[in-house]
Design brief:
Blueprint lengths: L6 H12 L1 E3 L1 E4 L2 E3 L7 E2 L1 E5 L2 E6 L1 H7 E3 L2 E3 L4 E4 L1 E6 L1 H7 L3 E2 L6 H14 L5 E6 L13 H6 L5 E5 L4 E4 L1 H7 L10 E6 L2 E8 L2 H5 L7 H17 L2 E9 L1 H12 L6 E7 L2 H10 L2 E2 L3 E9 L29 H12 L4 E6 L2 H15 L8 E4 L16 E4 L1 H7 L3 H5 L10 H8 L3 E2 L10 H10 L19 H7 L2 H6 L17 E4 L16 E6 L2 E2 L1
Length: about 550
């Protein structure tokens, strides 16, 4: 005979039986949902990796129960942050080379290289991060000292933007580079000593071709290192701007086995092999990997004077920079991608390169519906070309570039071109959105520095006091949207991430401070206390 529970036990337990059991409940939080109305909430429930309810603490506690009930104690939560333009794999590889970021002189560069080689002897010394604009002597260095220090070991040191490289004679000889070598789309810098060792843009490929390929163990370690760094900063999705097939397949395999949890929007590197393979295969989409875009380089970088300008550089008369990819090749690829499902994401820094890219997009897309092609960087725009930005020419910009470049940008561009440089608000008003990223490891990984630079237009020391070209600062809401829902939209992923809404992946971050309310000078110190992907803390 079936036993009947006493009435008082039914009364005590009945309410819990009526609640839905879920994987995770967060209550008493300060939640910025970043939905269409930018609404606030206090709590949410997560089940099977997705948000299933968002509301007040009372509402969520009344309807749901979980073995994981987290009282946020008023802490701030946003959707997982998205870096719309970075070099994720390169960040990982950079953990294994000489770190030259922040060097204040070429002498310091040499000291770091010597110390690294003593502690980590290599047959080919690699480094990255120097920036002559940060030195008292802002001229390019030469290979003279490297030749003396390393007469038998090749050395290749990339500039911070990745668009210039200093190499020694051993490396030049191994790559077959001499006075007669000619390479389109860049420069082999020459001086009184002959070839100085500085290579800008395309000539660097000759050095790349002789570098030792990292083995599988090194590549896996690099991806895991990069993920650790990104998750610690609250990034749950990264847009890697340029990956080859083998790296994309390695990322996919690590995600499938659970060894890599971060989500990756992969831009395919523009080589014939990569493009042919992926256009033929079509887009690849899993919960963690999205392959549906091609990364193209129109020109070089402003800091290395490789950006292609309509008029000569103000500090190097007669020099216009260069198109890394010829105009006809950009147009041919654009026509090919226009009849595929792939997005075209083109690096364009100078006003001439931006004009080429924007007008090419307009010509081949002809206002076709919902293609969302992106202009990566959109750094210097002629006033006559802003009109080309819109639903199919989305600006993908990096706010910290503005605050890194502001002390020397006018020297390169002159006063007349500055109103169209780093014009994020103007781009937002024209296109209706901006996708925000860092371009790490060119800049620091921290999305809080991105947010700070976008809002204040100041460097980490709070300079300039009045802000840099403040007419193009973003509001805090615009900055957060650019790092979440607008970035997701630019990836065709706005229905699955970018806001805390029912049905979307439970990617979110718990912070130690409220970046939307604290004094702006405190924003760079914000920390991601916990980062969740699919409702699981990482």
């Amino acid at each position: 005979m079936k036993k009947i529970l006493p009435l008082f036990l039914l009364f005590l337990t009945g309410c819990e039986y009526l609640k839905e059991k879920v994987d995770l409940v967060i209550v008493n939080a300060n939640i910025y949902t970043v939905d269409k109305g930018f609404s606030k909430a206090e709590a949410f429930a997560v089940h099977k990796g997705k948000f299933i309810a968002v509301g007040s603490t009372e509402e969520i506690r009344d309807q749901y129960t979980s073995d994981q009930l987290v009282d946020a104690d008023g802490r701030t939560i946003t959707p997982g942050l998205i870096d719309a333009h970075c070099h994720f794999y390169r960040l990982g590889l950079n953990q294994q080379v000489v770190d030259l970021t922040g060097t204040k002189s070429f002498e310091e560069v040499l000291e770091r290289v010597e110390r690294f080689q003593r502690e980590n002897p290599k047959n080919f010394i690699l480094g990255r991060g120097w920036d002559q604009n940060d030195w008292e002597n802002q001229e390019y260095p030469t290979r003279k000292e490297l030749d003396k220090l390393f007469p038998n070991t090749p050395v290749a040191l990339r500039r911070i933007d990745g668009h210039a490289m200093l190499v020694n004679k051993v490396a030049l000889d191994a790559a077959g580079i001499d006075w007669s070598t000619q390479v389109e789309g860049g420069e082999i810098v020459k001086g009184s000593m002959g070839i100085t060792g500085v290579l800008i843009d395309n000539p660097m490929q000759l050095i790349d071709s002789i570098m030792p390929e990292p083995d599988l163990e090194t590549r896996v370690e690099a991806l895991k290192d990069a993920e650790r760094i990104c998750l610690n900063h609250g990034l749950t999705t990264v847009n890697d701007a340029g990956l080859d097939r083998s790296t994309i397949e390695l990322i996919d395999s690590l995600q499938q086995t659970g060894e890599l949890s971060i989500r990756v929007y992969a831009m395919v590197s523009n080589t014939p092999e990569n493009v042919n393979h992926y256009i033929y295969q079509g887009p690849i989409k899993t919960d963690r990997l999205n392959v549906r875009s091609v990364k193209v380089y129109a020109d070089g970088a402003l800091g290395s004077r490789g950006a292609n300008l309509k008029e000569p550089y103000s500090d190097k008369w007669g020099h216009f920079g260069a198109m890394v990819t010829p105009i006809e090749d950009i147009e041919d690829l654009a026509r090919r991608l226009a009849i595929s499902e792939y997005q075209m994401n083109t690096h364009a820094i100078g006003d001439s390169a931006n004009a080429v890219v924007l007008r090419t997009y307009q010509k081949v897309l002809n206002d076709s519906s919902d293609r969302r092609w992106k202009v990566e960087h959109a750094q210097v725009i002629d006033s006559v070309d802003f009109k080309y930005f819109g639903k199919n020419s989305i600006p993908s910009v990096q706010p910290t570039h503005a605050t890194s470049d502001m002390y020397w940008a006018e020297e390169r561009l002159g006063e007349e071109r500055m109103p169209g440089a780093y014009a994020f608000k103007k781009l937002l008003d024209q296109a209706g959105m901006v996708a925000l990223g860092t371009d790490f490891p060119v800049e620091d990984v921290s999305p809080f520095l991105t947010f700070y630079a976008a809002v204040t237009r100041k460097d980490i020391d709070g300079n300039p006091k009045e802000g840099f070209q403040m007419q193009d600062a973003l509001s805090r809401e615009e900055a957060l949207r650019g790092m979440t829902i607008w970035a997701a939209y630019s990836n065709f992923e706005e229905d699955e991430k970018g806001s805390i809404e029912v049905g979307k992946f439970a990617d979110f971050v718990i912070y130690d401070k409220d970046m939307m309310e604290i004094p702006v000078q405190e924003i760079p110190t914000v920390m991601a206390e916990q980062t969740f992907v699919n409702g699981v803390t990482r």
